[in-house]
Amino acid sequence: MRRAAPPPVVEEWARRFGGASLDARGEPLVEAAAAALGHALAHPGRSREAAYALLAADALLTCACEDAAEAADPEAELRKLLARLREIDTP
């Protein structure tokens, strides 16, 4: 069970950059986090949009890690999450 709800603006960023709600669970949440992180990496420097994307990725990944911790096999779920993040192309 997730602890505290994030501020509403984080939910907005998650939808904008990750295409998912912070209420999502499992693979769709990880995919949205990867998309948001990919967006942040594609816009390096002092870009406000990249900063928002990075915050969205952080929120989505935090939720994904919380979900993994509650899974039957947390280690396997975290390994899948990390494997997906390694697939992100960097500029």
In what range is the share of β-strand residues? under 5%
The shape is globular
Q: Quickly count the helices.
A: 4
What share of the residues lie within helices?
Answer: 55-70%
Straight-line distance between termini:
36 Å
Structural category is: mainly alpha
Write the element-wise H/E pattern from the N-terminal end onward: HHHH
**What value does the Rg take, in angstroms?**
13 Å
Domain count, please report it: 1
The beta-strand count equals: 0
Average pLDDT metric: 87
Largest sheet: none
**Low-pLDDT segments:** none
Any overview of this molecule?
By secondary structure, this protein is an all-alpha fold. It has one domain (8-86). 68% of the residues lie in helices and 0% in strands. It has four helices and no strands. It has helices at 8-18, 27-42, 48-69, 74-86. α2 (27-42) packs antiparallel against α3. The longest helix has 22 residues, at 48-69.
